[in-house]
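agent: user wants the structure for NAD(+) diphosphatase from Saccharopolyspora thermophila. delegating to structure tool.
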Amino acid sequence: MTSDVCAGSDFQLDSAPLLSRSTVDRREWLRDAPDGGATLWATGRVLLVDAKGRTPIDANARLVMHPATDFGERPAPGAVLLGAEDDVSYWALRTEHDGAQDGWLDLRTGGGLLNDTDAGLFTCAVGLLGWHDNARYCAVCGAATTRVRAGWARRCTGCDREEYPRTDPAVICLVHDGADHVLLARQPIWPKGRFSVLAGFVEVGESLEACVRREVAEEVGVQVRDIRYLGSQPWPFPRSLMLGFAAVADRSAPLVPADGEIEEARWVHRDTVLAALRSDGGEIEGLRLPPGVSIAYRMIRGWATWQG
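agent: tool returned. relaying C-alpha cells verbatim.
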C-alpha cells in the first residue's frame, strides 16, 4: 500500500450497508444456559425461514414473529438462538412451508425494507440455518453431527469434534482513476445491463490487500494502488463476508476481461453513475446498478456523491 493518495480518492460509504445493521445482543454466554434455553424460550419470539431463505414481512416492513411457546415448552428441535434484546430472545427455525405461495421475501428483496433490528435478525438467521443445512456430517470422520450451544455449534457423534459456523471472506473493490471515472464490469450470468464493482474470494495464506490486487488483475487485467478499506457486509448466500475496498488504477491501461468470468468491463463517468442513481430502480440505458441491499451499491453511491 502506498502513502500517496490521489485527489478525490478519500470517499466513504454513503451509509452503513443494509445487511450490516443490527441491534440485538448475541450474548454468547446464553448459548450454554444450564436449562438448555428453556427460560429464554418461554418469552422468546421465533422467525420462520423456508428452504429458499424467505420469511414473511408485514405491511409495516416488519418481520412476522411467532411466540416461541407456539412450538412447544422447550426450544424446538432445529431452533437456533439469534440473540436477545429488552428481555426478549429471538430464535430462527427452518420451515418446510414454501413461502413463495404466500409472498414471503428473501434478503435480497426484503432486507433493505427492514429496520436495523429486523435486518440483523434476518441476516443472521439465513446464514446460521444455511450452515446447519450443509454441516450435517463431520469433516474429519464423516459421522453425523448434532447441533449444540443453541445452534452455534455442531458436535460429531463419532469423534466428538465440535464444528462452528463458517464465514468465507471475499474482497469487493471499487476501482477508480482518482478523478471522475469508476471501473465497472458485468458477469455473463447477470441481468442485461447490470454492472458492478469487482469482487473475489480470499485464498489461503493471502492478505486482503493482496487479494484485491490479484482479483482486479485477474478479472480485468489492470494493476491497482492506494488500496484502502471502506467497510464490510455479511452476505449469507451462502456464507460470505464482503470486505469493501477502494483502489486507484490507470485509466489508460488496457482492460482485459477474464474469459468466461467477465463479459464486459468499462470506465464509467461520474455523471453517468449519478444519472443511474437518480433514476427509478438505479437504471438508465446501458447501465443497471447493483441492488440497493448490496455493499456494492453503497460503494458506488458513496464514490459518485462524495463532496470531499
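agent: one observation worth passing along. The chain has a mean pLDDT of 95.
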